[in-house]
Amino acid sequence: MKLSDLLKYDEDLKLEKSTVVILRWIALIGQLITIYVVHFIIKFDLPIILCSITIFFGGLTNIFIQFNFRSNQLNNTESTILLFYDVIQLSVLIYLTGGVTNPFIIFLVVPAIISSTLLNLSSTVFLSIITIISMLLLTFNYMPLPSEGDIHFHVPDYYIYSIPTAMIVVLIFLNYFGFRFGYEARRRGNALNKLELVLAKEQELESIGHQAAAAAHSLGTPLSTITVIAKELKKEGISNSNKEFTKDLDTLVEQTKKCGEILKRISQNKIVDDEYVTNITLQDLLYEISRSFEEISKKKINLDLKKINKKIHIKRSPEITYGIRNFVGNAIKFSKSKIDINLLSEGEKTKILIGDDGPGFPDDIVKIVGEPYISSKSKKVRSKSGLGLGTFIGKTLLERKKAEIEFSKSKLGGALVEITWKNSDLVSRS
Q: What pLDDT is recorded for position 334?
């Protein structure tokens, strides 16, 4: 992940209001209990009134958020302001209770870590800087933490100075980890959303085809009936020498005939066959996909289906169709002139090999091909799309159908995509 990618990724992210409110109530109640236990039970002479006021104002902000924010989500700016207030509120409380010598100073890094995971980079940098400044100020300026009998708590200087140093290191590390984790999670989530959209569209198109075929069959009989009745009425009109009546009937018969021709063309589509709707051979599917690309591309596609003698019957699914089409499309996009598609059997497994004579997978990304939003140093690859989100979608869809995907170098010198199924997972049971 490059720094430039992180800087560009600055979308307006949101936090759930209910989650924020609950977490802040837990924090405020925890602060209140801790302060009162230390003061009244452990007998530390704390400025209990000032501490209570500080916590009280934190509660007021929470009430304000809970009842005055109509939206169920806080946008990135609102969340940043709220976390900024939390840093200041906690800094004041720690200032009143021993500063850097207070072990609860560790909680000062929490708002910045939350930001690194759930908000954008600018918010995280801002909150981290505020946190570091607060820790440095609390190192040199704070109300000493007394103990029973007015014996002041003494901590060696070297220990005091090492605390903010260690916390700053921890803050940087956790922020990097948190932002990296959140960044990848958000991108993968976006990719999965697009995947679901693609799949939904595929299923919608398939459904439309089925509905059209069903409509063709359903409308065939009524149209035939209309045609027969119209012809009978036409004969009656001729016998009565009603020319106007006969002309209208001619138009009706003609239009009905046109409707019949349209429905005939629809019904000739194999999709109306229920068996074909649900089942297809893998050989026929690969043939359909290769022919569809041959019609729009001048590049040569070599389809070899002869290495398997028996027909492999599978459940027709948008996942398999789209997944294979995606990799064939990528091969055509990146190839110079040749694409090889081979279907073969290895024991209890069936494989589809899709190779091309293009530049192949660059060494810097070959191990992570299939991840969303990847980029390569190769100018040849970077100039074309397909290695990022599209490949991720195709790979994920096929994996949903229990396929294993591997990427390597083809015999043609370009990329090779190897799609493997166990026969028990692939073959249709119907």
A: 87
Closest CA to 408 of 371, 353, 333: 353
- List the beta bridge partners of residue 341: 303, 354
Instruction: Calculate ∠ Cα 351-365-385, nearest 5°.
Output: 80
pLDDT tens readout for residues 124-165: 999 999 999 999 999 999 998 765 555 555 667 777 888 888
DSSP states along 172-194: HHHHHHHHHHHHHHHHHHHHHHH
Block residue for tokens 């020498």: 241
Separation of alpha carbons 6 and 397, rounded Å? 28
Cβ neighbours of residue 61 under 8 Å, at least 6 residues apart?
24, 82, 85
Which of the listed ranges 128-137, 192-201, 254-263, 303-312 does the model predict with the highest average pLDDT?
128-137
Dig out the tokens for 388 from the structure: 């990022």
Distance CA 282, CA 390 (A): 22
Question: Is pTM, for the whole model, over 0.70?
Answer: no
Question: Is residue 273 pLDDT above 50, yes or no?
Answer: no
Q: Residue 30 corresponds to which tokens in the numbers above?
A: 């925890």
Check residue 236 and report its DSSP letter.
H
Beta carbons within 10 angstroms of residue 263's beta carbon? 19
